[in-house]
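Service request form, structural biology core

Requester: graduate student, group of Dr. S.
Request type: structure prediction, single chain
Budget code: on file
Notes: please return the result as structure tokens.

Sequence provided:
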Amino acid sequence: MDKDYSEYKLTEYDKYRILRSNRKHITLDYFTNTVCFYPEERRFQIHVDGGQEYYWMDYYIDKAQEEEDQRNGVLSRVDSKETRSDREFNESQEAKNHKLMEKMKEKYRVDFEEGLADRARYYGDHPSIPMEPFINIFSSAKINLYYGEGLLDFIYADFQTASKAVRIFWGVLEEIIEKRAAPKREKSIKTKIYSKAQSMADDFFEYMHSFAAVEDIAYASLYSGICPPKFEGNEDMRKKLAWYVRYLTELQKEYLDLIKFCFDESCHPSVLGHLHPAERYSLYRYYRDQPETSRRTERVSFSVESGPQKKMPYGMPVEKNVWRLQNPLTVNDEITALAKELGALPEELATHLAIPHFMRIQYEFGSVAEILELEFTKMLEANVRFRKCKRCGKYFIMKGNYDTNYCDRVAPGETKNCQELAAVENYKAKIADNKALPVYNKYYKRYAARVKVNQIKEADFKKWKYQALTMRDECTEGKISVEEYTQWMEDYFPNRKSKQDK
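Core staff response, request fulfilled:
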């Protein structure tokens, strides 16, 4: 039975979910990235999907073209790979990408080498094809972060400034197109898909064109850069960009609110202070009418290579692992019987049994919303501590037992971070309030000058300095008055009488 939803009233959660999900002509999870968490070190590594670049899509592009030629009855076509790229544009884009990579390496712990090596290998095998620059510089990159770093970077990203110029550009462009277009628009015709190759090639070209439109917005934060959207078609690009920026800013508001509610020690301390951050999160979701559960995709794989991201075979200490490698099994009747059962060669099976296989657990994510939720829940598990900086007002991660009220961010236009600037400001304030310090400085300069001309002995000066500092602290603490301190300083080394007074 067909259902009519024309009168359906959306709940608050319906609205919440719709804003964070793919919609018509906008795909938020075109990439399939992976992330591996190391709870002991409170860090994680993101491996960005590298499959959405030309050198990975070349086969599907050529295959789709070949299929189209066959459908259209084209017998042969001159290979256009030599002219497919505008060499001058590519060189300019390559230089731009290189600068962006250097900038991102300064800001984040990013390793671009894998993607660069894959691309070099492909073009090395196909010397006749001009090298295409990366569409997204993060393709195939490995990024190392500590819990909270990616989330805070996203929360405080400036998407509005980045999107303003982009939307103005597309507004002007759409006006030009509108003026040149026929007065009556025809209905858009659906593209008929004949094969997987055509579907993948079409998706790739849509992504390539849409990333060019959204690039400045995407690179405003790490997570928007590694999870860029795919827009279908160039129509109403301004509206798509506006919706995408709204999607990002709503996520910013949500997770800023979550950090405050779940981690901020000053948030209703008398009521929430006894709750663990995870308990606060449960409370938050309940009263925001959000479901009690959420899902994520976990990927389990095995490797013969060890490393910090690999788990030892369960129950095996490191010593046993080394022993197994040093004492390979020899083929016996039992191994032969098992090999027959598995359909393997006995010698091959004996080697396989001697080599440990390590388990690797990763999570898959494609959208900004997914990686934010993943990182946030891992922060809850680790009970990460946050505090709001008393200078810039932004949250920062508390590291170890180091207790501070200031973050280590460097604000735009500054050369020092908040901790350094606060130290200078606090010192100046302390000096301004300390009436004993100017007295000490005044007499220090006077008596140091007399030491230089041998009017005061060095040993006497050192003795005075020790006592002067002690009395300065006593004056600061209010144990003696400024007048008493000044008089003591004046009397310690009486002024020498001039010859006329003798």
